[in-house]
Design brief:
Elements lengths: L1 H17 L4 H8 L3 H9 L6 H11 L3 H5 L2 H47 L5 H21 L5 H19 L12 H12 L4
Helix pairs in contact: 1-3, 2-3, 6-7, 7-8, 8-9
């Protein structure tokens, strides 16, 4: 029992410092005194199970985390932080790739505008479905594949909107009806289980 009490004490002190709380902040959040929080962190007393649950929720950890030795949790924290870095890098690469589309559109727009005087604003309209396609590709590689149907829906509707805007003078609003069977197919696709 002494080991668990010390594990809880070490973890509570670490988590409070990690989240930049004072003992009085934690005490106020849980309706306890800062002396009670101090006793928990010193290992003098062990909080009741319902208080431990509240502390775990406050710090965003499990009860298992609170009772596990600090050294073991430090290894878990390190793995979690590496995972966060990887996710951040994947997001950054995805956004950089999408920005290339917009940079190219801007460069082409400026070049055509300067050389010919023609205003190719439609490039920016078509950049939207192309960006959605790139998000779909990266989400298929790195992301949650179950969310691909969202990107597929966005591709469908932004593509149809781009066609509509491209041929605005012809008033081809019926083109949006073509999106309905595609959307139904995408919804059915999203329901397929692996």
């Amino acid at each position: 029992m002494k080991d668990i009490k010390q594990n809880v004490a070490d973890n509570l002190a670490y988590l409070r410092r990690r989240d930049n709380y004072k003992q009085s902040d934690v005490a106020n959040k849980l309706n306890y005194t800062d002396k009670a929080v101090s006793k928990w962190e010193n290992g003098d007393t062990l909080p009741d199970i319902d208080v431990l649950v509240s502390l775990a929720e406050l710090y965003g950890v499990s009860l298992d985390y609170l009772t596990t030795p600090r050294e073991t949790n430090a290894l878990k924290d390190n793995v979690a932080s590496k995972r966060d870095v990887v996710l951040y890098n994947k997001l950054a690469i995805t956004l950089l790739s999408v920005s290339v589309i917009w940079i190219l559109s801007t460069v082409i727009y400026v070049y055509v505008k300067i050389i010919t005087g023609f205003d190719p604003w439609i490039l920016f309209v078509w950049s939207v479905p192309v960006s959605c396609l790139l998000f779909l590709i990266f989400n298929s590689i790195w992301g949650n594949r179950r969310k691909n149907f969202i990107w597929a829906s966005l591709i469908t509707w932004t593509f149809l909107a781009s066609v509509f805007i491209q041929f605005l003078a012809q008033s081809i609003w019926l083109i949006f009806l073509a999106g309905i069977p595609f959307q139904v197919a995408i919804i059915l696709w999203s329901q397929v289980k692996k």
